[in-house]
UniProtKB/TrEMBL annotation, chain A:
It holds the Pfam family MnhB. It comes from the Archaea. The chain crosses the membrane at residues 34-55, 67-84, 96-122, 151-170. Keywords: Cell membrane, Membrane, Transmembrane, Transmembrane helix. Residues 35-163 form the Na+/H+ antiporter MnhB subunit-related protein domain. PANTHER family: NA(+)/H(+) ANTIPORTER SUBUNIT B, NA(+)_H(+) ANTIPORTER SUBUNIT B. It is found in: Cell membrane. It is a multi-pass membrane protein. One of its GO terms (cellular component) is plasma membrane. It comes from Natronocalculus amylovorans. This is Cation:proton antiporter. Residues 1-22 are annotated as: Disordered. Its main location: membrane.
Automatic annotation (TrEMBL), chain B:
It comes from Natronocalculus amylovorans. Residues 13-78 form the MrpA C-terminal/MbhD domain. InterPro entries: CPA3_Na-H_Antiporter_A, MrpA_C/MbhD, MrpA_C/MbhE, Nuo/plastoQ_OxRdtase_6_NuoJ. It comes from the Archaea. It holds the Pfam family MbhD. This is DUF4040 domain-containing protein. It is found in: Cell membrane.
Length: 189, 181
């Protein structure tokens, strides 16, 4: 992923201000005191519940897939309440794709590391060599391995992809709003 | 035959009505909102049948994220106005669907009762029984569903995670390019 998207972000801002309301069926964002207040009240609880689900998925229903979706929905709610364009200023495509990529790297990295240590794919018993640092029984190491791929892997992937899809659809068919994606496209060309 | 509780019956009727309404409403916005209600009803049904993991997924993805993405889509495209509220019912299609539901329903009697401890799926010594007996000793997590997903079937989960990642990145690239062109 390219790093130059940070440099053209201010330009995108100006373009968006000029083009607001021109190419759209109706404005995608309406400032509403009710929605803003509701989101302000609800967001801390949703975020806490999402994080709880992620970190506590091993002991109770839920898990990082659902938790990641809830954390993504926090950003989506904020975008709905305070403006999608305003939210994009601090949540760029690069961050979202980076989040998902880091997730795949952590998941795949741990899985391949256990192969490199002589075990099978995701063979948590290989993590026992970490007993040199901390003494833990085998099932505790399996638990921490699972927490790693759940929180560091799946949650990152799900949250990144869902937020990415949201912002992608939000920029929709508005031809002026493309510059957020061009950095990605050029990086992949 | 076990008795159907009033709660179950209410849930079934709710899910059925919202499903039919989703298909019948002409207005896309109305369909999307009712579809969200259908997903939420389904999430409660899953939770009622002791599948809270599935219920949470249905609530978060089906009722939450899908609804938001669909709403965004109609906000960014056109939503034609209609004079009539409901679609005209295509009776041949409805007949075929009804027949299909009847055929599926006929197989229902071959299923074991919900929660039957003697059901084949519950007594399989290599799968369910093994997980229930060994999941905690081997993986150290209390939620056997998590143990299956992240440990016993970790390779499958990795495949699913990569599919989500690939689908997300592909839509970012394809849609980004389409908007750009």
């Amino acid at each position: 992923m390219s790093t130059d998207s940070s440099s053209d972000r201010p330009v995108r801002e100006d373009e968006r201000l000029d083009s607001d309301g021109v190419a759209r069926q109706r404005p995608a964002y309406t400032e509403s005191q009710v929605i803003m207040t509701t989101v302000k009240v609800v967001v801390p609880f949703v975020l806490t519940y999402g994080l709880y689900m992620m970190f506590h998925g091993a002991g109770s229903p839920g898990g990082s897939f659902q938790g990641g979706a809830l954390v993504a929905s926090v950003i989506i709610m904020i975008a709905f309440a305070f403006g999608i364009d305003a939210t994009r200023i601090w949540v760029s495509n690069t961050i979202l794709v980076g989040l998902a990529t880091v997730g795949v790297l952590i998941f795949g990295g741990l899985a391949l590391a256990t192969i490199a240590l002589g075990g099978a794919f995701l063979d948590y018993s290989e993590l026992l060599i970490l007993n040199a640092i901390v003494e833990l029984p085998a099932n505790e190491w399996a638990k921490w391995g699972m927490e790693t791929i759940e929180i560091g892997g799946i949650a990152f992937i799900v949250a990144g992809v869902l937020m990415g899809l949201f912002f992608l659809l939000a920029s929709g068919y508005d031809p002026e709003a493309d510059s957020g994606h061009t950095a990605e496209v050029r990086a992949d060309d | 035959m076990t008795m159907i509780t009033p709660l179950e019956l209410t849930l079934f009727v709710f899910v059925l009505i919202t499903a039919i309404m989703t298909a019948l409403f002409r207005d896309v916005l109305a369909s999307i909102v009712i579809f969200a209600a259908y997903s939420l009803g389904l999430a409660v049904v899953y939770t009622f049948y002791r599948a809270p993991d599935v219920g949470l997924t249905e609530a978060a993805i089906g009722a939450g994220i899908t609804t938001i993405l669909l709403l965004l889509t109609i906000a960014k495209t056109t939503r034609p106005r209609h004079d009539e509220t409901f679609e005209k019912i295509n009776w041949p299609a409805a007949g075929v669907c009804g027949l299909f539901a009847l055929v599926l329903g006929a197989t229902m009697f071959a299923f074991p009762a919900v929660g039957d401890p003697n059901a084949p799926a519950m007594t399989n010594p290599d799968v369910t029984v093994y997980y229930i007996e060994n999941a905690y000793q081997e993986t150290g997590v209390e939620n056997a569903v998590t143990a299956v997903l992240a440990a016993y079937r970790g390779f499958d989960t990795f495949g699913e995670a990569v599919v989500v990642f690939a689908a997300g990145v592909a839509s970012l690239i394809v849609l980004g390019r389409e908007v750009f062109a």
